[in-house]
Amino acid sequence: MKTSLVLLLLAFISSRAAEALSCYKCTASLSNDACNTNTQNCTSAEDTCMTTVITVLGINTIIKECATNSACNAAVASNVSVGALGGSKVTCCTMDLCNVNGSTTARLNVLPLGASAALLFLVSRITV
Which residues of 68-78 are buried (b: 16+ CB within 10 A; e: fewer)? Predict the structure, then answer.
């Protein structure tokens, strides 16, 4: 019984290892929903799903693709922020279709900006 269970587990693991990583794939999409309509099976060298979100004046452009771990980590190291004008943010993950929510990180940056503006408005109203 234990032997057959171990063999079944090994068969599952070995068959899973032979499958390619699957990532969402899009180029220059303006919405995450539209970006998540296409998937891509990565090559054997590509072991990472990479998402790039470029924000310009509050408008997000999303790019999702397969990449190597080293290429994705190099892109993460080059993340840029130019304040309210925008910037770029790269995220990496290594599970099937793990790049489903890549654009939410860029949108969250607007929340602290809006909260700060609201706080400044309230403070200015109290002091007047």
Answer: beeebeebeee
pLDDT tens digits, residue range 15-43? 445 579 999 999 999 999 999 999 999 99
Q: pLDDT tens, 62-84?
A: 999 999 999 999 999 989 888 87
So what's the pLDDT on residue 22?
96
SS (H, E, C) the chain: CHHHHHHHHHHHHHHHHHCCCEEECEEEECCHHHHCCCEEECCCCCCEEEEEEEEECCEEEEEEEEECHHHHHHHHHCCEECHHHEEEEEEEECCCCHHHHCCHHHHHCHHHHHHHHHHHHHHHHHHC
Residue boundaries of the structural domains of the chain: 18-127
CATH class, 18-127 region: mainly beta
Per-residue confidence (pLDDT) for residue 5, from 0 to 100: 41
**Cβ atoms of residues 59 and 53 within 8 Å:** no
